[in-house]
Structures are given as structure tokens and as C-alpha cells.
Design a protein that fits this description.
mainly alpha
Length: 79
């Protein structure tokens, strides 16, 4: 689109609203397709979402902290 969109005029507002309606429609189609894809993946038995941070092999005792010559900073874990 090479022309300026003047929303102060009735024609400009009409074009603006048509563009907004098309954008909203396309967004709704994308959301609908995403939900359909998620439902299909669940039906196939796929595990959705972020993987767990702690795996069974890592869920034992925490690793020991190494001694440090400087005092720990307030942001460091309590080691």
C-alpha cells in the first residue's frame, strides 16, 4: 500500500476497520489451527510442554558445593 491511510476521513476509517477485521480473522484461524494441532498431538500420545528440570537420575541428593575462598554473593545459592 503506497497511499497514506488518513483515519480522519470516513473512507480512511473504513479501510482501517476492514484491515483490522481481516487481521483479527487471520489471527483466529491461526489460534484454531494451533489448538487443533495440540489436540492431535495429545491424541497421538505426545507429551506436551516444557521438559521437567529434574529427571529421575538427577533427583537424588544434590551435588556438594566446592569451598570458595571468597564469601558467597547474596545471589548465589546457599552453598
Amino acid at each position: 500500500m503506497k497511499e497514506a491511510l488518513n483515519t480522519a476521513t470516513p473512507g480512511g476509517r473504513l479501510v482501517f476497520h476492514v484491515f483490522a477485521a481481516l487481521a483479527e480473522f487471520i489471527r483466529e484461524l491461526i489460534v484454531e489451527g494451533t489448538y487443533e494441532g495440540l489436540a492431535a498431538a495429545k491424541a497421538r500420545g505426545a507429551r506436551l510442554g516444557r521438559p521437567p528440570a529434574m529427571t529421575p537420575s538427577r533427583s537424588g541428593t544434590p551435588a556438594p558445593c566446592s569451598p570458595s575462598p571468597t564469601p558467597p554473593s547474596p545471589r548465589s545459592p546457599g552453598c
